[in-house]
Amino acid sequence: MFAGGWLDSPKPEAANRVFAVPPSRTRALRIAALASVVVASVACSEPDPTASPPTTTESTAPAGTASPSTTAPVTASAIESRLEWVAQALTAGTVTEEDYQATFASDFLNAVSYAEFVAGLDQLGGDDEVWSIGEFESREGVTATALLTSSGGESLRANMTVEDSAPYRIVGLVLQPAEPPTLEDPPQDLQSGAERLAGMGETKLAVMEVEGGECAAPTFEFGDVSEPMPIGSAFKLYVLGAVADAVAAGDLAWDDDIPIEEEHRSIPTGVLQDEQAGETFSLREMAEVMIAFSDNTATDHLIALVGREAVEQAFTDYGMENPQLNIPLMDTMDLAALKVGPASGLATQWLDADEEGRRQILAQISDIHSSDIPVGEFVEPVLPDQIEWFATPADMCRVLAQLHGQGEPLTQILSINPGLPDEEERFEAIAFKGGAEPGVTSSNWLVERPDGRQFVVSGSVLNPDENMDQLQVNLLFGAIRDLVADL
Fold first, then answer.
1. Could you give phi then psi for residue 413, rounded to 5 degrees?
2. Phi and psi of 442, rounded to 5°?
3. Which helix H or strand E contains 17, and what residues bound it?
4. Torsional class of 461: left (φ above 0), alpha (ψ -120 to 50), beta (otherwise)
5. What's the whole-number average pLDDT of the chain?
């Protein structure tokens, strides 16, 4: 759910790890619609001429190149120098805060905190491997794309943009695997795939056919699928349902402008957490980034817009068998505050409280700000089996089927991010929403085959004691989804 610690996609050591500063709000939303794993992104402005320059020495540049001049235009050595800095940071697995502040432009620093950046480096680099600059794939003006390679044979593609004058601080940085991750020895049947998931944690998984908008009994099930499972950000499907209901009732319209408000700003994942207060986005844009990009700030704004009680009602209206497990509704900041923020001392009281007591706790912590949450420190499981959102696979089937059955724009919103690519084009349509935090990974698909039959694949893997390999979990879920094409 949250990048750096809470994820909705594979872990960054083998999946895309992005530190990005897009040049405009429009592009930020497009990136939100297309990317699957992101640390942070903001609307980029011109470089800040008043910011103090970093220290740039000969040691930062690769052998045989000169350090960037204080007056020269952008040169190959300037870009190489910054790429070399990234390679050295990956080798060390960390950087000092002073060095970080000196190397990146102000917009990037505002988007990605030092703790978040170091958390990313820790997951991508270190491990006694030496990173170096490999082949340049492109280089034009202030932008370059190059491969970074490690002594252990790993490769990352670095897309970098630097300022157009000295000190050539980094304005944008995107790090991705040079090749997309693949699953070794993919399972040949649903049972073996589910058993491999169970080796990583308690697994509940079901495959259900959707006929006439209704979910049939499971075609395949593994684990006690009658018991609710933690679903992470998949709860946002019910927020989408509440929003769609408000539009259908005439209370809202998809083109309504929604301003960013400080009291509803959350923490990554997402892009909207970096927007200025007062900046407006349409209701549809917020819904798109909430689902496709798992944007937490969009989620909390939408919950505030329709009202917490409307989402609680959506649990029932969209077929959740035991909605009381999620009432009162926590928004994303509530969950973060109870897990690792200033309200973490109230976690025990939360678990012991009845509904009214929990509502009082939510009121008590309502003024906690996103800046109070140490996102980079949330790297180990924190009560993922107790403080979470919960649903059964059948619940997830019903909400996906009902939302998808409403047609546009919901079908488009649900299909922007397929979770994992359908490289073999097995399906005519894919709707997806996942969710994860340390100790939990949930994946939920509605797929339509070329023969017109629709299936929902819904599952969750829980390990409250230690981190699981989220990349392998996600790839296994994807392999199970693909097997549905041949049922």
1. -60, -40
2. -125, 140
3. strand 17-19
4. beta
5. 84
- DSSP string for 103-149: HB-HHHHHHS-HHHHHHHHHHHS-TTPPEEEEEEEEEETTEEEEEEE
Structure tokens at 442: 């949930």
Q: What is the pLDDT of residue 107?
A: 84
25-61 pLDDT per residue, tens: 333 333 332 222 222 222 222 223 223 222 222 223 2
User: Distance between CA 211 and CA 127 in Å, rounded?
Assistant: 50
The first and second tokens of residue 196, run together, are 């491999």
Q: pLDDT per residue over 150-179, tens digit each?
A: 988 888 889 888 988 889 999 888 888 787
Which domains are delineated in the chain? 17-177 (3.10.450.280), 190-486 (3.40.710.10)
Distance CA 264, CA 280 (A): 13
pLDDT tens digits for range 119-150: 778 777 777 789 999 988 888 778 888 999 99
What ranges make up the beta strands (E) of 344-467?
390-391, 429-437, 440-448, 454-462
Quote the CA–CA distance of 467 and 464 in Å, as a whole number. Answer: 8
- Which of 347, 341, 339 minimizes the C-alpha distance to 371? 341
Location of structure tokens 């009121």: 363
The H or E element that residue 280 is part of is strand 280-282
Of 131-135, 320-324, 407-411, the one with minimum mean pLDDT is 131-135
Burial 450-478 (b: 16+ CB within 10 A, else e): eeeebbbbbbbbbbbeeebebbbbbbbbb
pLDDT in tens, 73-105: 455 678 899 999 999 999 998 899 999 999 999
| End-to-end CA, the chain | 31
- What the block records as the tokens of 328 is 């009162």
Residue 434 has pLDDT above 80, yes or no: yes
